[in-house]
């Protein structure tokens, strides 16, 4: 700032008359920089959302192929994860394709199946986590008694009923992956309106209401191919 | 002058405007930085809630986080004694764990420890005071309930659970103040045979395993600090040197001292008996028997490996043993096929070498892996083709496809391998995929072999197995386990699925001999199309289909028989020559624990069948549960539980849960393994770390099954924050712009 002041000082010297022309572009430059910085930052923020939505389109296609072929399919060639399930909230008309693993990278694209928890519908507690500001923002609307359907990669559809919701610390979740029964937990960050990262997680707990049934792959593929329902 | 006068206020205004522009810019930038910093700090703060200095500690002691945040408890002390009796082809191990509670409260101790991956754990005994309680086998959940009920009721209880086939947990509830509880488990295993070499491995340490997401590289290994790895150090921790919070094993004397004795009855005159990793005393008791004692108690930080070979000319080529349990007959057979002179049929090979240069390989392991690979490169013949893949959490394939093993390509590969350094995470699956991607032979029939060098320190074993099962094609996978504590379960199962072998390299001086043996296997014609026929019929044999054999390997067959009569006919092809051997069942010698071994193998078969998609998960579970309950074995579905029915902990006295810390394997570089971000598999392992190291929240997502509960990933993005800050900046910019316009307009 000091280095600049003399230039802008009204009594800075004989070249005073030329100052207006010199300074005007500068202040414009500053404004331009601010606008650019703003655009970049906001763009990054929007990109996070865009990525989350675009990825779901690709994931839908990959998951449809998984259902048809029974094989893990990468949604794009350089992906390090692949779709493993589709989570549907029939009452709210929402669905999302979940990915293997819950690394930060995977979560940018869709809900992640937390490693070393069973698949939904298998004995134990299956846990899927997603960002509260993208795919799992909808969890705030989920109420006890709601149905959650999970279509597994083997084509089986498992229906769960929400038994309750609670808030837990990220490392004291109280979720036992080997708990008796067939349970499902959807997890996201809490509180929903916060803008920074926090230690709390919002958990939607559900238990199975219908045993896993084999569903003919035909209609399922067609359904999966209709694209995301958002 | 007039112009000057007019000019001055305008200049002043511009000055203000100019300053405002800069101030706005700076302010906005400051705001942005602050916002991001706050976000970052929030993320960090949540993960390290327990950074409390335990000021009440007077002298050094091992402290561990208690259940309540910010509270620490003194660790229960633990000693382990291993007593192994080898008789012929099998070994029976008694592992005694001594839990001592140094505190004045009632505690629950939890200890995670390794066992051989093919060990059949069948007995649990608990000694409390002068009472001995024998454990019962039960379905895992039921056992857990029994244990929890006893814990609540104030009764002393012990529980043995399987986490992985080679990883177990013992929990002991209600150990009284100052009290000592003994837990003894027994397991049965078969002796491993390769050529003339018989061997036995006692894993003594659980290597913290890697799971997805990279480990940050830490400080370089300091050679001067290898003291904790030396077997001669006093096992009783030098407690004065131990600072309460920093539990970096480089600074700590390892806890968990281990004593070990092997009573060896080989059944044939013995030649050399060697302990690869530990100093031992060997006492000769007869031509075929020895007693091997490990010198001094040692810290549990490297695996014990004992190998023996027969005296010259005494090598047995056939072994046949039987056992009758509950009216049923079990049989164990070993047949070593003859070694034919080097076959003319030396088919050219395509060899893909895969080397793990992840952080867990840091230190001695990396050197061994590099030496092994360099040796292997030197063994290639000009007709062979090869490629090299290296991986940590990234992956490099040296050549686009397999290339001829000529001087130029070998030179490139040698300098590539020599330049490798250990860092990063262990993403094994993509590397295996790359190695198994087969682009065909281009005409001539060639053998395709994958030699995979790793310590196997990963927790997502099943994913790797699935990859091999799905992609193996004509390739054979040879696993080479590197380091003092490789994950042998991963290695042997991967080799089994890949129809190759598993070679273990535990020390630098083993590199050449073991790699030579491996290469002899790779080069020798394999014994193929093996089958076994029981003339009496009605036999339930495992493995159902016999795997191909490599040079020096015996056929190993376990079976439940309908009757102890008739013969077993083993048929196969050595190269292109048929080979048949007939064994008379009635002449089998008495053996011990064969039924357990048979059941353990049947259980492993069910797991493999599930991986290969031959049976579904529920069928596999049913089979495993039935076998385990009948044969009293601990599996992933069954546990042993023992409850002392006398209630002891008085009402009102609280129980605090303590975890027994683990030792890192010797030769592991603490910083490289954990970097700044610990990646332990279990909470017990995490407790070894300095509390300050447990700071990275997002990586917590990648932890595998914790013993108790799921750790949830970070599930918030800073999208909103970025958008808001961005818009703010945008507004500031526009405002500055508009101000500039106005001032210009005013002047005009």
Walkthrough of the structure:
- The complex is a heterodimer of chains A (230) and B (748).
- Chain A has 230 residues and is α+β, with helices and mostly antiparallel strands.
- Chain A has one domain (47-225): Sortase, Chain: A (Beta Barrel), CATH 2.40.260.
- Helices cover 30% and strands 27% of the residues of chain A.
- Chain A is built from 4 helices and 8 strands, in the order H-H-E-E-H-E-E-E-E-E-E-H.
- In chain A, strand 5 and strand 6 form a beta hairpin.
- In chain A, helix 2 packs antiparallel against helix 4.
- Chain A is globular, with a radius of gyration of 25 Å.
- The N and C termini of chain A lie far apart (50 Å).
- Mean pLDDT of chain A is 78; it is low at 1-21 and 212-230.
- Chain B is of the alpha+beta class and 748 residues long.
- Among the domains of chain B are: 2-43 and 719-747; 76-190 and 527-550 and 591-660, no CATH class; 349-523, Rossmann fold (3-Layer(aba) Sandwich), CATH 3.40.50.410.
- Chain B is built from 13 helices and 36 strands.
- In chain B, strands 3, 4, 6, 7, 11, 14, 16, 17 and 18 form a 9-stranded mixed sheet that branches.
- In chain B, helix 6 packs parallel to helix 7 (488-497).
- Chain B is globular.
- At the A-B interface, helix 2, strand 4 and strand 7 of A face helix 1 and helix 13 of B.
């Amino acid at each position: 700032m000091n280095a600049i002041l003399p230039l802008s000082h009204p009594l800075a010297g004989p070249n005073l008359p030329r100052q207006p022309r010199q300074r005007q572009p500068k202040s414009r430059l500053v404004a331009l920089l601010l606008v650019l910085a703003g655009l970049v930052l906001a763009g990054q923020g929007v990109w996070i959302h865009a990525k989350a939505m675009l990825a779901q389109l690709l994931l839908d296609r990959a998951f449809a192929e998984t259902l048809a072929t029974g094989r893990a399919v990468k949604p794009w060639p350089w992906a390090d994860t692949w779709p493993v399930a589709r989570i549907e909230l029939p009452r709210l008309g929402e669905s999302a394709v979940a990915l293997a693993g819950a690394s930060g990278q995977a979560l940018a694209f869709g809900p992640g199946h937390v490693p070393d928890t069973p698949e939904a519908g298998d004995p134990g507690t299956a846990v899927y986590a997603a960002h509260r500001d993208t795919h799992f923002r909808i969890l705030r609307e989920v109420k006890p008694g709601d149905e959650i359907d999970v279509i597994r990669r083997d084509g089986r559809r498992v229906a769960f009923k929400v038994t309750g919701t609670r808030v837990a610390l990220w490392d004291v979740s109280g979720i036992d992956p080997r708990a008796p029964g067939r349970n499902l937990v959807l997890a996201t960050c809490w509180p929903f309106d916060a803008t920074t990262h926090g230690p709390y997680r919002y958990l939607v707990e559900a238990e199975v209401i219908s045993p896993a049934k084999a569903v003919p792959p035909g209609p399922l593929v067609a359904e999966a191919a209709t694209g995301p329902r958002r | 002058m007039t112009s000057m006068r007019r000019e001055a206020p305008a200049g002043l205004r511009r000055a203000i405007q100019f300053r405002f522009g800069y101030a706005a810019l700076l302010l906005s930038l400051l705001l942005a930085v602050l916002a991001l910093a706050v976000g970052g700090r929030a993320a960090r703060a949540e993960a390290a809630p327990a950074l409390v200095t335990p000021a009440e500690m007077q002298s050094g002691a091992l402290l561990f986080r208690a259940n309540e945040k910010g509270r620490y408890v003194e660790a229960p002390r633990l000693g382990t004694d291993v007593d192994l009796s080898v008789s012929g082809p099998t070994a029976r191990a008694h592992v005694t764990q001594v839990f001592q509670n140094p505190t004045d409260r009632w505690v629950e101790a939890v200890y995670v420890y390794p066992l051989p991956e093919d060990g059949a754990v069948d007995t649990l005994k608990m000694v409390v005071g002068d009472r001995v309680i024998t454990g019962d086998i039960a379905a895992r959940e039921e056992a857990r309930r029994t244990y929890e009920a006893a814990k609540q009721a104030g009764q002393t209880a012990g529980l043995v659970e399987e986490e992985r086939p080679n990883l177990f947990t013992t929990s002991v509830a209600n150990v009284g103040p100052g009290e000592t509880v003994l837990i003894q488990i027994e397991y049965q295993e078969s002796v491993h045979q390769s050529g003339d070499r018989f061997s036995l491995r006692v894993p003594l340490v659980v290597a913290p395993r890697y799971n997805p997401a990279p480990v940050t590289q830490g400080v370089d290994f300091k050679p001067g600090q290898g003291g904790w790895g030396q077997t001669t150090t006093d096992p009783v921790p030098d407690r004065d040197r131990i600072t309460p919070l920093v539990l970096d094993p480089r600074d700590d004397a390892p806890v968990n001292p281990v004593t070990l004795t092997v009573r060896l009855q080989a059944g044939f005159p013995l030649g050399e008996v060697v302990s690869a990793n530990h100093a031992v005393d060997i006492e000769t008791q007869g031509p075929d028997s020895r007693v091997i004692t490990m010198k001094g108690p040692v810290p549990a930080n490297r695996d014990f490996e004992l190998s023996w070979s027969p005296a010259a000319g005494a090598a047995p080529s056939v072994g046949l043993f039987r056992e009758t349990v509950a009216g049923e007959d079990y049989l164990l057979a070993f047949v070593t096929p003859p070694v034919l002179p080097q076959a003319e049929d030396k088919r050219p090979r395509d060899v893909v070498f895969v080397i793990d240069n992840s952080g867990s390989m840091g230190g001695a392991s990396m050197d061994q892996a590099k030496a092994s690979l360099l040796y292997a490169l030197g063994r290639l013949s000009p007709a062979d083709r090869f490629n090299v893949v290296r991986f940590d959490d990234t992956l490099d394939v040296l050549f686009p496809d397999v290339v001829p093993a000529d001087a130029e390509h070998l030179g490139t590969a040698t300098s590539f391998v020599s330049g490798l350094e250990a860092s990063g995470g262990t993403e094994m699956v993509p590397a295996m995929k790359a190695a198994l991607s087969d682009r065909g032979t281009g005409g001539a029939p060639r053998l395709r072999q994958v030699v995979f060098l790793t310590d196997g320190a990963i927790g997502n074993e099943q994913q790797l197995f699935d990859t091999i099962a799905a992609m193996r094609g004509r390739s054979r996978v040879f696993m080479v386990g590197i380091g003092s504590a490789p994950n042998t379960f991963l290695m042997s199962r991967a080799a089994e699925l890949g129809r190759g072998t598993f070679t273990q390299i535990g020390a630098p001086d083993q590199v050449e001999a073991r790699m030579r043996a491996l290469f002899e296997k790779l080069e020798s014609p394999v014994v193929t199309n093996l089958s076994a026929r029981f003339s009496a019929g009605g036999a339930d044999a495992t493995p159902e289909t016999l795997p191909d054999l490599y040079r020096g390997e015996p056929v190993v067959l376990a079976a439940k028989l309908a009757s102890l009569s008739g013969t077993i006919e083993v048929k196969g092809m050595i190269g292109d020559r048929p080979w048949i051997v007939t064994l008379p069942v009635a002449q089998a010698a008495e053996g011990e624990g064969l039924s357990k071994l048979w059941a353990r193998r049947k259980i492993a078969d069910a797991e493999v069948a599930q991986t290969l998609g031959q049976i579904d998960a529920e069928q596999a579970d049913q089979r495993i549960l039935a076998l385990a309950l009948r044969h009293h074995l601990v599996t992933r579905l069954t546990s042993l539980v023992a409850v002392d029915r006398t209630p002891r902990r008085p009402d009102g006295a609280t129980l605090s849960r303590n975890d027994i810390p683990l030792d890192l394997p010797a030769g592991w570089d603490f910083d490289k393994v954990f970097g700044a971000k610990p990646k332990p598999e279990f909470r017990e392992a995490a407790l070894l770390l300095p509390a300050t190291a447990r700071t990275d929240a997002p990586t917590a997502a990648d932890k595998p099954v914790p013993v108790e509960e799921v750790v949830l990933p970070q599930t918030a993005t800073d999208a909103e924050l970025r958008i808001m800050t961005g818009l703010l900046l945008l507004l500031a910019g526009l405002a500055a712009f508009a101000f500039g316009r106005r001032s210009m307009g005013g002047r005009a």
